[in-house]
Structures are given as C-alpha cells and as structure tokens.
Amino acid sequence: MNLKNKVVVITGAGSGIGAATAKLFGKHKADVIVSDINMENAEKVSTDIKNEGGKAFAFETDVTKFEQVENLLKTVVEKHKKLDVMVNNAGIGGKHQAKTADHSHEDWHNVIAVNQTGVFYCMQLALQQMLKQGHGNIVNVASLAGLKASGNNLSYSASKYAVVGMTKSAALEYGRKNIRINAVCPGFTHSALLEQLLAVSPDMGDKLKRFIPMGRFGEAEEIAEAICWLASDNSKFITGQTLTLDGGTSL
Ligand code: NAI
User: Fold this and answer.
1) Which domains does the chain possess?
2) Which helix (H) or strand (E) holds 171?
3) How confident is the model at residue 83 (pLDDT cuts 50, 70, 90)?
4) Is residue 89 helix, strand or coil?
5) What per-residue confidence (pLDDT) applies to 201?
6) Which of 27, 42, 33, 153 is nearest to 100 (CA)?
7) Is the pTM of this model over 0.70?
8) How confident is the model at residue 187 (pLDDT cuts 50, 70, 90)?
9) Any bridge partners for residue 10, and if so which?
10) Span 119-133, mean pLDDT?
C-alpha cells in the first residue's frame, strides 16, 4: 500500500477509529492532518505520529460548523497545495436509548448535525478542491447501523443510512472525475463510543457479543486498515461501495 506523501485529512481523529487511522496513515508516511473538536486529544495523536517518525499536525474543527470545515481545508491546501484523501470519521451516538415514539429531539438534532450534516459539509468542500486538482479519494465512516435496522437508536440509524446514501450518490456523480468515494461499515468496535453503549448495563458487552459470530468486538486498528486500503491505489477500481467490518454480525 503506497500512501507516502499523500495529504490526508481525518475528522474525529483524536480518539478511537479516527486516531488509529491517523496513526496508520502516519506509519505509511502520509502527511496527516489530525482534526477533532477535542484539540487536546488531536495534539496527542499528532505528537504520537511524529514520535514514530511520521508527519502530522493537529487542527481544531467542529464538523457541524461549515466555516470551520472551510477553514480546515483552506489551511491544508495553503500548506500542502492539495488534498488527496478525506476521511469523514467524526461521529457521535445519542445520549438516550429509547424507541422512536420517545426518541429525544436533542439527540436527533445533535446526532444528525455531526454524523450527517458534518459528512455533507466535509464531502462538499473536499470535492470542490478535488475537482480543481483533478483527483481525490473520500472514505466515509458509516456503520453496520447504516445497513441494517437497529432498535432504540433512530437518529444514529438515520444518520448512518444517510452516510451510505451520500457515499453512493456522490460516487456516481464523480466517477469520471478521478474521484473515488467509499464507506466502511464497522460493527461494534472498541472505542469511547462503544464504552458509552456498554455503560447502559453491566452485562451489555456479553449480550452484544452473542450476536457476533466471531465472538468479539472489533479493534479500531482493524477498521483503520480497511480505510487506508480504500484510500490507496490498491483498491483503484472500487467506488460507491460499503465495506462491512463486523466479525460476521450482519450474517
Ligand atoms: P470515538 O468517540 O472514540 O471518536 C469520535 C471522535 O469524534 C472523538 O474524538 C470526538 O471528539 C470527535 N467528534 C465528536 N463530535 C465532533 C464534531 N462535532 N466535530 C469533530 N469531531 C467530533 O468513537 P469511534 O467509535 O472511534 O467513532 C468513529 C466513527 O466510527 C463514528 O462515525 C462512529 O459512528 C463510527 N462507528 C463506530 C462504531 C463502534 O462500535 N465504535 C461502530 C460503527 C461505526
């Protein structure tokens, strides 16, 4: 996989899947922009990459704010003159678990703002730059919840189905422009987001594992491998696809 000197922006890269992805791009000698709303975590990831001999800088961005995403990409292009890869990873779960009739409006607005509108803003601005330079690669982090029904989770489900839809529709639009757009769909993967779900009850972890044929949760590093592969020329005839990484859960 040759990712050397690729300019890669990753949103939500201060933690979990985003952090593991940033570190893997760093190992492959890409120029990594570690973007997150949490600057302290982004700085830590950027420092780790540099300590391992990679190239990185941290940048504070709230993906729900169009002007902040604009500022992020403007800064990257001023510095590096191009944007090769955009990984739209920032995402949140709702704070409450409830069926649709009782779904919290606060959760709805927050989850849609980050997971759906945030991905739209990032895709739109990344595509404008990629069209100018004549090439580009976008990897969106959707979820198994964007492919299958999930209870007590309506805003998350809606937002991840939207990410899959945006991935396919935009891939259709830009196939002839040398821009590929794909999505990964992780199942339950160790991260802060999963910890939040497991905190619901002490036996939640065991309950969830019963639905995973491989009998374990995924690791952020395993998702990162798939993201880097989709971003590399090793997958160069693939666009508009979802790659499911779920230990067989969807079976
Ligand atoms: P995480 O909570 O460890 O990381 C999410 C990161 O996004 C954090 O660093 C957080 O500060 C950042 N973030 C939150 N709101 C933001 C905003 N408005 N602007 C910019 N950054 C923001 O969670 P994890 O699991 O690594 O999640 C990454 C992606 O993977 C998300 O899109 C999530 O929906 C998706 N995913 C996670 C699964 C899991 O089981 N962990 C399963 C399927 C998908």
Assistant:
1) 7-242 (3.40.50.720)
2) helix 154-174
3) very high
4) coil
5) 80
6) 153
7) yes
8) very high
9) 34, 87
10) 99
Residue 193: what pLDDT?
86
Centre of ligand 1 to C-alpha 176, Å, is: 31
Pocket of ligand 1 contains residue 249 by CB under 6 Å: no
> Whose Cα sits closest to atom 19 in ligand 1?
62
> What is residue 101's DSSP assignment?
G
pLDDT for position 200: 79
Token representation of residue 210? 């019963």
| Cβ–Cβ < 8 Å for 42, 66 | no
| Rounded-to-integer distance, Cα 46 and Cα 29, Å | 13
Share of the chain above pLDDT 90, in %: 95
d(CA 115, CA 138): 15
- Please state, in angstroms and rounded to a whole number, the distance separating the CA atoms of residues 50 and 163: 31
Distance 19 CA to ligand 1 centre (A): 10
Q: 227 with 21: CB under 8 angstroms?
A: yes
The whole-number pLDDT of residue 29 equals 98
Q: Which two tokens stand for residue 83?
A: 């944007």
Distance CA 139, CA 137 (A): 7
What is the predicted pLDDT for the residue at 199?
86
Pocket probe for ligand 1: among 15, 21, 112, the residue whose CB has the most ligand atoms within 8 Å is 15
With CA atoms as reference, report the closest residue to 110 among 158, 169, 163: 158
- Consecutive H or E run containing 86: strand 85-88
Residues 80 and 32: beta-carbon distance below 8 Å: no
Ligand 1 atom with the smallest distance to the CA of 141 is 32
Ligand 1 centroid vs 161 CA: distance in angstroms? 16
